[in-house]
Write a structure and sequence with these properties.
four-stranded parallel beta sheet; alpha/beta; Glucose Oxidase, domain 1
């Protein structure tokens, strides 16, 4: 390749020069055994890996990276793997959401500072996907995301069990003596029997699937099981394709457009996707300078039925979803609701991918006239209790509670909740509304997945399996119930939620999109005057930075100074 051709690549400013700086850049790389011809002007492809043994969902990504490298080499590129912060939902405390923005900064600055022409993002556990996408969006290089894939179906006592979803059910059964500790521990072993992320339609599977709708991942990225050899083939194909995208000069922003976000919102409704997708896509859109709001989530997803019969909204699991046709088959059913001409990283349009798909099991992927649930989109509620919005997942809720009026039982933080929820004297019944304060972005801090509050033991013993729950928290995508989340502004920011008292009447009207606290304005003013902000959790370090700059849920919980990407960086000459 000519020197003129080399200079079109960012990496040429490091490897394509014949002076002291080129000597240093090439010379130090040679200690890894890289031969001279690899510096002949071929594109350098970064493989951004969130592998970690502390992130069980991502513990197999080291092997998957080798398949990406093989594809890059096949296409004539130079693959260079690098690590970034890994976020493991099952182990990290207080919550991985506290660190999503930090991980995105790790990705952004690594890409910005190094000789990388295009990047393949390797993600798995739920916050790793948005953090990688957000960081890459802020640099806007050619980008493809490859997910690690879901685990195989869990098997326990002759039936399938799903991660998260059945863990919640089994914990409730243990709590009331329906099962013993021996069965509970046996289910623990049987549930997670292969590498991969949650095999329910939790946040990991949701985000992996929505990457297909966004066009930033290859077809079937969402559903191929982690241990299926076709996952390795997809990774190798991604390695080939990223080299082609670099040659085309196709940055991430050319693929993840407003149309792509609208497709993802529709797809989220059809798959019964996680409420967490709301904050993640809002944050990603903010990085790309794309207008996307809670109102868009409601309007675009409002009439979309839930077509995929998967836990937590239905019966099946991700392995079944793949065998039934995966995301492309869902897009085929949704064909007239999608922007068919939206481009994807694969080179095909969304319409072409949908047209080529086949539905192989119409119990798992339902037709429009026989949906798994009539309502699949995320419903956005507003009113005096949530002036900037709140969300609920109708497909996971109890229909009779979607229009409900009840008295609040208020908990001032998750520790207060845990101390009192199973008190036999707690004045709770099936009509009560459990209200949790202090679990939003600034309140916990980090906005943990505690919004699906466990029910009181005495209600479970009565056979009651759901009540309305309201909070400024999030909930796991594997969870279920009539749970209203992401109330904004949060209690710690002085939102109306901070002023709710036990005994107050609250109206939930999901069809009318209302969430109202029945307390008159003078009384609220009196309560507000007596309210004091909570003590800051951190006085230094990243925690203090988080508290000072985090946005509310309706803005995606990103940092104010990260909204709006910087674009592909201008090269800075070395000293």
């Amino acid at each position: 390749m000519s020197s003129q051709g080399r200079l079109k690549l960012r990496s040429a400013a490091w490897f394509g020069r014949h002076d002291k700086y080129g000597f240093i850049a090439r010379g130090w790389m040679r200690n890894q055994g890289i031969p001279s011809e690899m510096f002949d002007g071929r594109p350098v492809i970064g493989i951004c890996n969130t592998w970690s043994e502390l992130t069980p969902c991502n513990a197999h990504l080291r092997g998957l990276a080798e398949h990406v490298k093989r594809g890059v080499l096949r296409a004539g590129g130079l693959p260079l793997e690098f690590p970034v912060m890994s976020l493991g939902e099952s182990l990290m405390r207080p919550t991985t959401m506290l660190f999503r923005n930090l991980a995105s900064m790790d990705v952004e600055e690594t890409l910005r500072a190094n000789p990388i022409d295009g990047v393949v993002l390797l993600a798995g556990c739920d916050k790793t996907t948005p953090s990688l996408l957000m960081g890459a969006a802020s640099v806007d290089l050619p980008t493809i995301l490859v997910s690690g894939g879901p685990m195989l179906n869990g098997k326990f006592n002759g039936r399938d069990v799903g991660s998260g979803t059945d863990a919640i059910r089994l914990a409730d059964d243990l709590k009331i003596g329906k099962i013993g500790l021996e069965d509970f521990l046996e289910a623990e072993v049987a549930m997670n029997r292969s590498p991969g992320s949650c095999m329910t339609m939790g946040t990991a599977s949701t985000m992996a699937s929505l990457c297909e709708g966004l066009g930033i991942a290859l077809p079937q990225n969402g559903a191929i099981p982690a241990v299926d050899s076709r996952r390795a083939v997809l990774a190798e194909n991604a390695g080939v394709r990223i080299v082609e995208l670099v040659a085309m000069g196709a940055p991430m922003s050319a693929i993840v457009t407003r149309a792509a976000f609208e497709n993802a919102v529709v797809l989220n409704g059809a798959i019964g996707g996680s409420t967490n997708a709301v904050v993640h896509l809002l944050a990603l859109a903010g990085r790309l300078g794309v207008e996307l709001s809670l109102a868009d989530w409601d309007s675009r997803g409002r009439e979309v039925p839930c077509l995929v019969d998967l836990m937590p909204s239905g019966r099946f699991l991700m392995e079944d979803f793949y065998y039934a046709g995966g995301v492309p088959a869902v897009m085929q059913v949704l064909a007239d609701r999608l922007h068919r001409d939206a481009v994807t990283a694969s080179g095909q349009s969304i319409g072409a991918i949908a047209d080529a798909a086949r539905i192989l099991n119409d119990e798992v992927i339902r037709p429009l006239d026989r949906p798994a649930k009539p309502q699949g989109g995320i419903a956005v509620l507003s009113g005096n209790l949530a002036p900037q919005g709140a969300v609920i997942k109708p497909s996971a809720a109890t229909p009779r509670l979607m229009s409900h009026r009840g008295r609040a039982i208020v908990f001032d933080g998750i520790l207060d909740f845990r101390a009192r929820i199973d008190d036999p004297d707690l004045a709770v019944d099936a009509d009560s509304i459990l209200v949790l304060k202090g679990a939003g972005p600034r309140g916990y801090p980090g906005m943990p997945e505690v919004g699906n509050l466990p029910l009181p033991k005495k209600l479970l013993a009565q056979g009651i399996t759901d009540v309305v729950r309201i909070s400024d928290a999030r909930m796991s995508g594997t969870a279920f119930g009539t749970v209203i989340l992401h109330v904004a502004p949060e209690a710690a920011a002085g939102g109306t939620l901070a002023l709710v008292e036990s005994g107050d009447w609250i109206t939930v009207d999901v069809p009318g999109r209302r969430l109202e606290l029945h307390v008159d304005e003078p009384s609220l003013a009196t309560r507000r005057a007596a309210w004091t902000p909570p003590t800051a959790h951190f006085a230094r370090g990243y925690g203090a930075l988080f508290l000072d700059h985090v946005l509310q849920a309706d803005r995606g919980v990103d940092f104010d100074f990260l909204v709006g990407g910087s674009g592909t960086p201008t090269l800075i000459e070395p000293f």
